């Protein structure tokens, strides 16, 4: 499987799906920074290290989860012949790329239903994050971000299921890393730039072009799987 195609597709999904991330996580960021001194919260230069720590830790959790998913997928596919396993990987990856592209383009939002499956796991993880609040230092923010990375989110969990088909732990980690890096600009943006970025991402034509590109990646993967099956 061409990892570079999957990586950039995941990057696009993370960036253009960032409107969902801002809507869901924006309030969480506000709650996490609530305990900081007023002069820190009101000055972007002082707040940035905290936001960066949160988000780097969040992406670290995504990457670890991707490695786990890639390992699980590899172990499962080791039970079938290698050629069949490769076809299954290509088909699943292509299918999820198509679904992700439909989500990014604003044509279908069924993937968000997946997040209810993570609510049970979150019940055990959330109390750990509560013990780290209120945040007083970037190091503490990093620890809280590691917990935040496991927050139930249909978009995140959908990419994680996609990572099952990545082909191994490294490929799964890279896929989730690409997705996490894609979400970073939307969640780090502040002030006037945040408004401009949000307005750009929300434009229907921008989302449709991006979604169409991801769908095209997925169709390519499905066609490749079909050609190998026919051969």
Automatic annotation (TrEMBL):
Keywords: Membrane, Transmembrane, Transmembrane helix. The chain crosses the membrane at residues 6-38, 59-81, 87-111, 141-164, 170-193, 205-223. Pfam families: DsbD_2 (PF13386). Residues 9-220 form the Urease accessory protein UreH-like transmembrane domain. It comes from the Bacteria. This is Sulfite exporter TauE/SafE family protein. It comes from Guyparkeria halophila.
